[in-house]
Design a protein that fits this description.
The complex is a heterotetramer, with two copies of chain A (218 residues) and two copies of chain B (229 residues).
Chain A (H helix, E strand, L loop, with lengths): L11 H10 L6 E4 L5 H6 L7 E4 L3 E5 L20 E8 L2 H9 L5 E5 L2 E3 L4 E2 L15 H7 L2 E5 L11 E2 L14 E3 L3 E6 L2 E7 L5 H7 L4 E2 L2
Parallel strand pairs in A: 1-2, 1-5, 5-8, 6-9, 8-10, 12-13
Antiparallel strand pairs in A: 2-3, 3-4, 6-7, 10-11, 11-12
Chain B lengths: L8 H4 L8 E4 L9 H10 L4 E4 L9 H7 L3 E6 L8 H9 L3 E4 L2 H13 L3 E4 L13 E4 L2 E6 L4 E11 L5 E2 L8 H7 E11 L19 E4 L11
Parallel strand pairs in B: 1-2, 1-8, 2-3, 3-4, 8-10, 10-11
Antiparallel strand pairs in B: 5-7, 6-7, 8-9
The chains are: A alpha/beta (218), B alpha/beta (229).
């Protein structure tokens, strides 16, 4: 497991819970690999929220018990999962119709950077010594009705990941609707980034100082 | 008489030659046609182009073909995995060409080949470096990129059950790329867990009709396990 | 809680307004959503655009909507039938606009809408008068025509069984346009023979996953018969 | 039923049987509405030939007995049919993938006219008082590996339907591989029309005189 160090504000689990809170009952949701998978564990028990996995699953359930284990039933992160009662299987092209055709209510994606106009960079650091690998990131970013980006607010050396313009190669432009970081929840609107909520102990001034992009504070 | 069944994996992969384009099913280890990949390795063919979602893992199937320098080019969406060391090594050496495509575009391009289309416009990747050198077009105010069909000379697919006509069912998430790849290759070769009698598969439940299948071989249960959680 | 079931056909079609584009399933009488069409007739809406393979027959469903002058435009592949007199009359009078599309292109255009594509190139019809005014392109030496997605405001579809989540199965050849139309409309409305409990439909056998379905109503068996041979 | 008057040569049933003879064991075939449906009854019992119907059927069987009758199981001509053991159902877009994607071995189509270069006209007489209706004709003509045209050699007033250039609106250009008429079987090749077989009693001279397009006699 990757250890990510949070200097301030919410823990990763708390950010996941905060995202889960914003997912309405009855939603169809895809959780990207990495941090967003934690949102699955945080979904409120009193809401019926269906998880989609790009490899052809709707109604994905939790990790199997030994007697539920099916070696061919894995999620997009290649981990063993289960299927809920009422879930279904379909082939990859149909699965990506769901993603690309605007049928998912919410896609939660990890991010390297998000820009003031909702551009998302989450697939490549541009390092030519690393082979490129995109997976379903661009399909998810482009196709869902709403895109939530989940990321730490700053890099380990303190550089803001909420930027005026992405420095990393884009995944898609103008797609992110909400940004969830350890420091704040931020709505991407046509007139800029609006702070919806700050984590406990994070002041407006601190948040502004930690963010390269201009913010409209709440 | 229509009979798509063949006796063993070696007969199943016969006719694959140097330079062939192989559409290889599977997402991670789920649905990977491991027995057919082994038979291709035994066949000794080289300069292959492999279309697979990933770049192989460990020492088996796609990874083994890459390790043994049989693969000239890999077309995939996500070549990296915790144990994709053979992909990484050959790519770093410069002996393995890599074309990375968004996963949905890869699947849709194979479907376009199977459906006889000349190509399509998609917003996926249109405003990214993966669209470099490709035609783009503004459609209803949104940038789209033109993507061409992606056909194969052969498809290697794993399914669950097959009958004499080549009708197929799949098992859970191992379905993934199989049904689309079956439509997109000149010759479609399928490994299944077991054969059933004609009529045993409910006509409402057949996922791949036999018209898309050329050869089927029964190999038993899959051997590969997912990562533990 | 996800519950796509509604109490009756009137609730099912609520919200359809004048000028709406309706994708109406069925091939001939097989798979026609006759109960939903009747409810649309009762709703009194007009200036509809109907996308259906045919132009109605006899006095029911699509034919009734045409007879009562509710349809401004029909998009179809084959409007003529032995008893498509209401289509013929309204078309001859000039009160019903007609757009004829090759059947496969019509289906593929709706799929493109459901798949989020910006359009595709197909050889079907490219060298015919049905390509007049459309972009053509030579691809691999063959003429292709560019076809745009065909989305609907509403889809009216008949299926066989549905559960609370809107998962659907179909019956024999009544499947036809249903699964594609379910993906291509803003609001998808389905009539089924009967409801079943969540979990009664095998996950391997569900044809339309509930994500594509907005409302389902149970109406019993279909009422319409094919022509006798 | 439409009555078609044959002046010379084979009857419609004989033409259907002649076509059936050219369909190899193991073929996947679509029979267009009208005359081509008669080919279904003429298929040799010792060959396994699977019929496709564009409304989502592979392995279509004959007219049902009363206890086999399924009101929703119809063919492209809207007539009640059955499904053979081993047959399958699929949706319309998948069905047209089969037709358009080159998966059918043979498509047998009726025709108004066939030209010397294999152009097919079979969907419209161009009469503006009749509404256009194309159905799956263009898809079938374009997509099958081989296209057989089945038609009477001449119109009722004796005009050749095998022409230098089609006068009716095209269904598709350069698609017909073989022409089956009451007078002859003709192969469409790049260097012109080659007579494969003449019906009994039809001389080479008669056939040439009855045909507008130039023929290479056998």
């Amino acid at each position: 497991m990757t250890q990510t160090h949070f200097v301030h504000g919410w823990s990763i689990d708390q950010v996941a819970a905060r995202i889960a809170q914003d997912i309405p009952d009855g939603s169809f949701v895809n959780l990207g690999i990495g941090q967003p998978t934690k949102v699955g564990d945080a979904l409120p028990a009193d809401r019926e929220i269906l998880l989609h996995s790009e490899n052809g699953i709707l109604g994905m359930g939790p990790t199997p018990t030994p007697d539920q284990f099916d070696p061919e039933l894995i999620n997009a992160g290649k981990m063993a999962v289960t299927l809920l009662t009422g879930g279904s299987y379909f082939h990859h092209t149909d699965s990506f119709m769901i993603m690309r055709g605007g049928h998912l209510d919410i896609s939660v994606l990890g991010a390297y950077e998000v820009s003031v106009n909702g551009d998302l960079a989450n697939w490549s650091t541009g390092d030519p010594t690393h082979p490129p690998a995109v997976g379903g990131a661009m399909d998810l970013a482009v196709g869902a009705k709403a895109v939530f980006a989940m990321l730490t607010h700053t890099t380990k050396d303190g550089r803001s990941k909420i930027v005026r313009e992405c420095s990393y190669p884009l995944t898609a432009s103008h797609v992110v609707d909400r940004i969830y970081t350890n420091l704040a929840v931020i709505a991407v609107q046509s007139d800029g980034l609006h702070v919806v909520e700050r984590a406990p102990g994070v002041s407006a001034e601190f948040l502004t100082a930690a963010t390269e992009a201009p913010l409209v504070q709440c | 008489m229509i009979d798509r069944r063949v006796a063993d994996v070696h007969e199943a992969v016969s006719g694959i030659t140097d330079g062939a384009v192989l559409l290889v099913g599977g997402f991670g280890n789920s649905g990977i046609p491991a027995y057919l990949c082994d038979a291709v390795l035994d066949l000794g063919v080289k300069d292959l182009t492999i279309v697979n979602n990933n770049g192989g893992s460990g020492e088996t199937d796609v990874a083994a073909l890459i390790r043994e320098n049989r693969v000239r080019k890999l077309i995939c969406s996500y070549p990296r995995a915790s144990n994709s060391h053979w992909f990484s090594r050959r790519w770093s050496e410069g002996t393995l060409e890599l074309e990375v495509i968004p996963q949905g575009t890869m699947s849709e391009r194979m479907r376009a080949a199977g459906a006889g289309l000349g190509g399509f416009f998609t917003p996926t990747g249109a405003d990214t470096e993966l669209a470099n050198g490709k035609e783009t077009r503004l459609i209803n105010g949104r940038l789209h990129v033109f993507e061409e069909p992606l056909p194969g000379d052969f498809a290697l697919v794993r399914a669950d059950l097959a009958d004499r006509w080549g009708n197929l069912t799949y098992h859970s998430a191992a379905r993934n790329f199989g049904p689309t790849m079956c439509t997109a290759a000149t010759t479609t070769i399928v490994e299944v867990r077991e054969f059933v009698e004609l009529g045993d598969l409910d006509p409402e439940h057949i996922i791949t009709p036999g018209i898309f299948v050329d050869r089927v071989v029964a190999v038993g249960a899959p051997t590969l396990m997912p990562k533990s959680a």
